[in-house]
Design goal:
It contains seven helices and nine strands. With 325 residues, the chain is an alpha+beta fold.
Length: 325
Amino acid sequence: MEIWQSSKSGPLYGLTLDLNIEQSDYIEALTQNAGVRVLVTSANKIGFPEDSGFSIAPGYSTSVGLKFLKISRLKSPYKSNCTDGFHTIYSANGGKAQTRYSVKACQNGCIQTQIASTCNCSAAAYPNPWNNTICPSDDKCVDKVLGDYRDEEFTCDCPQSCVAFDYGVTISQSKWPSARYQATSLTNLKNKGAGFKNADADFQAENLARLEIFFEELSYEDITESPSYSIPTLFGDVGGLAGFYVGVSMCSCAEFFELFIDLLIICMYRVCGSRSRDHTGYNGRTIENLAVGNGSFPANKKRSVNFSNGEMFTAQYPLPPPDYQ
């Protein structure tokens, strides 16, 4: 199978398809919608258009802009609990082990396994790697298994893939062909083969659809899960807190030591100061002579103290102090 590549972005450098949906071949009682179901997926991945695709309608041109996505998830014990992938019935069928794992492929394989074990046959909608007998389309047992799965009577262990590749799509539509281009489009259509010789405007509107697929830009988006709080971060925070508290303790010890030294100095000053006042007088000068008269200070009298440098200090006592012996 040839792989086409595009080295530029935009509709001019993408893939353009003109599709004939051939409504005349539709089954009247079964087909309700007219159009084409489209799914864009990565290589080696089983696609399920009925679940994740989009529809395009006849008479319109549908533009699909693509953006490549890479999604990386974390394994257990994180909540995503992803897997590196394992074989499903799609990879086992026909020996196509290179088929990439997907959640939907795992779920379909789980349902088929449940049908095979319960109904002793395999559903036609899913691969049949065991070569079992195909269940009838109206088998009540198959309907019951599908109902049980829908009602979550049984569950399938299908974790997300740890590394997934996908495409984000941007879809827009416009009327096609335009009124002025319709004649040219009909001429081109009739030249494509004998099957379109009798094509007209109604045939175009009911059966033809145009699909344009291109890259919006050549860059890609990488979505990566990462732990919000990892083990190295924990050790770093513990070390930082330990250093902070140890630093605070050392500062506190230094402050307490400084306080002790200050208190000791204050006590020494007070002790030394009281002893000095026992032997000194005013302004630290030595008292040479104190006239005390008969040994007592009479009331309301002034007494003077002479210092060695000739200065005199005079004090008056309103009340008689106690006698000095």
